[in-house]
Here is the input.
Amino acid sequence: MPFGVFFSAGRHFCAYHVRFRDISRGGLRVVLPSSLETHAAESRRQFAECFNLAWAQQLKNKDIPEGGSKAVCLVRPQPDERRDVLLHDCVKKFTDSLLDLLTPDETTRSHVAHASAGQELLYLGPDENITPTDIDWVVARAKARGYPMAAAFMSSKPREGINHKEFGVTSEGVAIFLDSGLRAIGISPRNQPWSLKLTGGPDGDVAGNMIKIMHREYGDNVRVVGISDGSATVEDPLGISMPELLRLVEQSAPLSALSPAVLSPHGVLTLADTPEGFARRNTMHSRVVADAFVPAGGRPATINSSNWREMLLPDGSPNTKLIVEGANLFLTAEARQALFDATKLPVVKDSSANKCGVCCSSLEIVASMVLSADEFVKIKPRYVEEVLEKLRSLARLEAELLFSEARKQPDESLPELSVRISKAILRVRDALGVLMDTFDETQKQRLWPLTRELLPPVLFENYAQRLPERLPWNYTKSMIAAGLASRMVYREGLSYTEGLAEGRLAEFALTYLKQEQHVRALAAQVVASGVPHARDVEALLLRGGIRAAAEHPHGVDHAQ
Here is the structure.
């Protein structure tokens, strides 16, 4: 059940915002269909799409303080208006309708029936059809209308934010899940040739950055044998020229700008400007055979319960050995499960595979709450590098747990395991959050130092005194609870954390937190002692010592 739903209807648009926690973040997506007929079809599924995206966001946001949310603004086509003008106008109107309900201005609030007694905090991010101009306007509008911490109202700001496309934050995580998945199916991607197909163009965020990362990490070992975007599809079983793909990425050009001369005799570029070309573009993912498939663009439910069999070869095997969902909801839940039941095809679900985008936005929100625009710009290069390191670490931890659990439970699909991981983390996080709400000021102050390992170090080096003043307790509490819950589940696994009784979950999590600090101190002392195999002892302590200490805290205290 969602925590809250906003509905807004205005000139040329209708929009929903769905959130699953009081403090939530998620993207704003604007959909402008090409015709009134398509608009009618999109309208019928708009709320379901928004709800499903928000729930996927809730599962994805397990590692961060904010719950999951999503906004979908459906625009009615206007033949006499320029597309970009119409889109921007509807973004402005929808933003104002949200701020009407969120503003602390008493004059405005007096016109709101059943206004919330407390301040509601929403954090938006850019999604489909949101431009840097839109982002700047939304933040400026929030500030003009008195929204608290207006700079945090929308992430991925061009100057004082972390632009997802510029820094490839989502793709960095997708690439780590892809790497782990390839190894899990017996492909060593750095040591042998392998093939890849993608949806999404070189001018897009996730697909464009995946091309760059694949070249950076695997060089000539990886062959992109199929790729499609809104303009065209390119297919070549011998591999599409990587320099040519990188040229398109650098120029932010679509696939239609690819030079056919770089293709092998077996390669083909097909523009999507004819019915035949449109059909080939829309079926590239189901026709081209590759070791791995990364949907990095495309509409939700492209692969669904009615067409999943198109992903099978004549012998019944899948046309790919692994799918890693860089795009949200490219496969429906029914399609994922059907492919697993029929072929055991591993599909890394979107809420795991592309979670680094939301984790990055959360860390941008923290910076926006603490720093001025100029202060952020001053430390931005280092801040971004430290954020990227945290993102890769979070992706690696979950990928290792996901494929480890898959080896233990081969009859359960990766999407089912992914949902279980998210729910296990959210369960621990929520229980710990409820307990922390009972803390007095002294107890809260003792917890504050724990935020140090959750935030980029540069914040503490330059602004340590300011952090507790600028970050609200509710946000800090959620940050600490989310950080501990994810560490606990990633370290101890599903069967252990799911088996913890509801009645003792919060107290055990708090004990686990205390013993984690104690065991880390012991491990540091072992390393500092210089004894033989100190690093091995440190790893064993950190791997199993925390759980043992939490289960027998009195024995540990006595030993001290």
About this structure: Residues 373-408 form the longest helix (36 residues).
